[in-house]
TrEMBL record:
It comes from Thalassotalea psychrophila. Transmembrane segments: none annotated. PROSITE patterns: CYT_DCMP_DEAMINASES_2. Its EC number is 3.5.4.5. Keywords: Hydrolase, Metal-binding, Zinc. NCBIfam families: cyt_deam_tetra (TIGR01354), PRK05578.1 (NF004064). Pfam families: dCMP_cyt_deam_1 (PF00383). Belongs to the cytidine and deoxycytidylate deaminase family. SUPFAM superfamilies: Cytidine deaminase-like. This is Cytidine deaminase. One of its GO terms (molecular function) is cytidine deaminase activity.
């Protein structure tokens, strides 16, 4: 994990997501994805998608990114960036949206970027309205 200033430029996260993208394992779909998150402590953590011949065991970049942070003792995040080289910007899948809602505030920003320098951003609440979160277990 890299430590960064609190006033982070999105380009540092985009670079980390792109570097993770380069390590993605996607021999079946050829749909490579990288993700990078900024933790509440100011660290950048990244992950890539890892496919499996048993398709249901594939793990997305966003979930690998968050899991990597948790492994390193971080459980709170400021923002998350997803990088692909698709012509159309790619939002997180439903499973990733649920995991993102577990660890990021509803007002946190998730941004998709691509190799064409396009980007789109959503709040977590926009990605998963009325998410089931730990607060629902209280």
């Amino acid at each position: 994990m890299a430590k960064v200033e609190q006033n982070l430029n999105i380009s540092a996260l985009e670079l980390a997501a792109k570097n993770a993208y380069n390590n993605a394992y996607a021999p079946y779909s050829n749909f490579f994805v990288g993700a990078a998150a900024l933790t509440k402590n100011g660290n950048i953590v990244s992950g890539c998608n890892v496919e499996n011949a048993s398709y249901g065991l594939t793990v997305c970049a966003e979930r690998n990114c968050i899991a990597q942070a948790v492994i390193n003792g971080e459980q709170q995040f400021q923002t998350l960036v997803i990088y692909t080289e698709q012509e159309k910007l790619t939002p997180p899948c439903g499973a990733c949206r649920q995991v993102i809602a577990e660890f990021l505030d509803q007002s946190a920003i998730v941004t998709a970027v691509n190799h064409l320098d396009q980007q789109i951003s959503w709040t977590v609440k926009q990605l998963l309205p009325d998410a089931f979160t730990p607060k629902d277990l209280e």
